[in-house]
Amino acid sequence: MNPMSERSNHSKPVSDDHIKTRCATVPQLSIVVPTYKERDNLELLTRRIFEVVGKSGIDAELIFVDDNSQDGSVELVESLRPTYPVRMIVRTAERGLSTAVLRGFSEAQGEVFLVMDADLSHPPEKISELYQPIASGESDFVIGSRYASGGLTQDWPFLRKLNSWGATLLARPLTSASDPMAGFFCLHRRTWENSARLNPLGYKIGLELLIKGRCRKIREVPIVFEDRYAGKSKLTLKQQMLYLVHLQRLYFFRFPVLSRLVCYGLPLVVIVGLILMLR
Q1: Residue range 207-223, pLDDT digits in tens
Q2: Which of 49, 42, 54 is nearest to 12 (CA)?
Q3: pLDDT at residue 255, rounded to an integer
Q4: pLDDT tens per residue across span 167-199
Q5: Is the C-alpha dihedral spanning 31, 124, 132, 142 positive or negative?
Q6: How far apart are CA 251 and CA 253, in angstroms?
Q7: Tally of domains in the chain
Q8: What region does 33 belong to: left with phi over 0, alpha with psi -120 to 50, or beta?
Q9: CA Rg value for the chain
């Protein structure tokens, strides 16, 4: 019998002793969570994650990458380490969600990477559904999707829905995925390693990995996206402007000739046309 199949039949919550034993093994899955002032969410998130992976028989490690919050997050994670295979990397010289995710990848030991937010808006109960298609080789990028059939955004005001819809529409020519903006996604280590010229900007690292990793077998798992459990949103106008710059870079990567024609050729045609009209 396949060992993976044997483990997937395990239905009892994982014991503390089992968790401690797994700390010494190479994990199958590395879960990377970028954080900034998310202390009040970390214990509950950790417990839910390891309850899920324990029931699913997945050997996992949890890596928090923190942008020097100085809010007690480090001490909290240290208190969890005797029970769970969890650690925190604190960055003092760099900021930003995208670069935090890549730092987590560089420290990860697993062959499969999963990224999720710290605020409990992404349901840990869906981790196995994102992991299995990558582990089996059926997919090379799996998204926890708000917009796939069966997905839902809970209690979002109209303006937030409009903002998300507009950002998704702008990315539509780059990928057929219904929710390419998702921050809840899973990929194989080699997809990251083979990604061309990663140049993260802002907070949509998933979209960059999807495009520059040249992912073709994309799967979307519907999720209920809930409002954050505690703390404040980090989405600002600056982050939204950075997304537009990031999007421009991805268009240049995905459609280099067409993008240069639009950016440089069209203004030149307009200028020449005006000159000819004024002669």
Answers
A1: 999 989 999 999 999 99
A2: 54
A3: 78
A4: 888 888 888 889 988 899 999 999 999 987 787
A5: negative
A6: 5
A7: 1
A8: beta
A9: 21
**For 125, which DSSP code?**
G
Which residue, among 219, 8, 217, 44, has the nearest Cα to 128 in the 3D structure? 8
Amino acid letter, 165: W
DSSP category for residue 157: -
Tokens at residue 135, please?
A: 């582990």
Read off the tokens for 192: 């990251």
CATH number, domain of 129, equals: 3.90.550.10
Residue 79 CA to residue 86 CA, distance in Å, equals: 10
For residue 156 the two structure tokens come to 């979002």
- Residues near 147 by beta carbon (within 8 Å), at least 6 away in sequence: 168, 178, 179, 220
174: domain range?
3-278
The pLDDT of residue 24 is: 53
Look at phi and psi of residue 79 and say left if phi exceeds 0, alpha if psi is from -120 to 50, else beta.
alpha
> With contact defined as beta carbons under 8 Å apart, do 141 and 65 qualify?
no
Other Cβ atoms less than 10 A from the Cβ of 35: the count is 27
Taking Cα atoms as reference points, which of 218, 220, 223 lies closest to residue 150?
223
Please count the residues of the chain. 279
Helix (H, G, I), strand (E, B) or coil at 248: helix
Let me know: does 1 contact 49? Beta carbons within 8 Å: no
Give Cβ neighbours of residue 99 (< 8 Å, ≥ 6 apart): 200
Residue range 102-116: mean pLDDT, rounded: 96
Residue 88's CB is within 10 A of a number of other CB atoms, namely 21
Residue closest to 145 by CA, chosen among 220, 228, 226, 218: 220
Contact 23, 66 (CB under 8 A): no
Considering Cα of 25, then 26, then 31, then 35, what sign does the dihedral take? positive
